[in-house]
Amino acid sequence: MPQLSAVTPQRFAGKAWKRQSGYTFAAQASILPIAMTELAKLVPVLPLILVKTESGFQLVAITALQPGMNLFVAPDGRWLGDYVPATLRDYPFRLVKPKDRKDSILCFDEDSGLLVEAGQGEAFFDEAGTPSQAVKDTLDSLSQMERNRLVTQTAVDALQAAGLIQLWPLKVQQGDEVVAREGLYRINETALNALDAATLHGLRNKGALALAYAQLLSMNQLSVLKKLSLAQAQMQAKIQAKAASVAQGLAVLQGFGLSQDDGTLRLS
């Protein structure tokens, strides 16, 4: 769990932060929350699904069929897709809504490794305790994302109310076994095509109709996950081969009697 702390002058005065240089922090995120404003860029690159929550359903992008894995993150932290979902861009900042408050507060993940001393990165506050422009920009970005999330949720709720969400019985190959991937939902295309004109009109006005078709079209991108799985295996094989080569080289040096204290080569 991340250690999220409210961004206040009391907590972060005299501190700074570095911008993320990769996406290793998301290497275990097999699903990512998304917004309708991203659909045009997401549909060609990521499969979109719905997952069940305490209050209904949520629209997400799936990055791997195995929980705790993200095939779009390379071993060196690079993002392997053509589009990075908005939810990842403002890390290590997040908007958090405490149960006892109506508004959300800006928080920083202190476990991110990106918190540094003043002068080593972007400042949180100036000497007067005013948020820096970088912090203001991040807050604006996250606030816009939250507004987009609420619009998206309204559309998802409309699809649920229309009875258009159904369980998606996907099966995953894990070694020699085929395992069912539970908890995934999709749009019921048959039910969608059977809707009357008035219901379709209502869904269109809420943006739900576009969302439904986007989810259906994005299912073609499941093949991307298979390709990325193969690519990940190849990258891991290269890493292991390099490690083996280094180990072999060290063994050869030890054969020469490499001194552990001064690093000089001595013949055995």
Report on this model:
With 268 residues, the chain is of the alpha+beta class. It is 36% helix and 19% strand. The strands form five sheets. Strands 1-7-6 form a three-stranded antiparallel β-sheet. It has a three-stranded antiparallel β-sheet with strand order 8-2-9, with no helix packed on it. A hairpin with an 8-residue loop joins strand 6 and strand 7. The longest helix has 34 residues, at 222-255. It is flat and about 80 Å long. The model has no long low-confidence stretch (mean pLDDT 88).
Please describe the structure with a list of short key phrases separated by commas or semicolons:
268 residues, 19% strand, flat, three-stranded antiparallel β-sheet, alpha+beta
| Cα-based radius of gyration, to the nearest Å | 24 Å
- Major beta sheet summary: 3 strands, antiparallel
- Gross morphology is flat
Low-confidence stretches: none
Number of strands: 13
Number of domains: 1
Mean pLDDT figure: 88
- How many H/I helical runs? 7
Distance between the termini: 51 Å
Summary of the model, kept short:
The protein is α+β, with helices and mostly antiparallel strands. 36% of the residues lie in helices and 19% in strands.
Q: What secondary-structure arrangement, pairings included, does this model have?
A:
Layout: E1 4-6, H1 9-12, E2 15-17, E3 31-33, H2 39-42, E4 48-52, E5 57-62, E6 93-96, E7 105-109, E8 115-117, E9 122-123, H3 133-161, E10 165-167, E11 170-174, E12 177-181, E13 185-187, H4 189-193, H5 197-205, H6 208-218, H7 222-255
Antiparallel strand pairs: 1-7, 2-8, 2-9, 3-5, 4-5, 6-7, 10-13, 11-12
Helix pairs in contact: 3-6
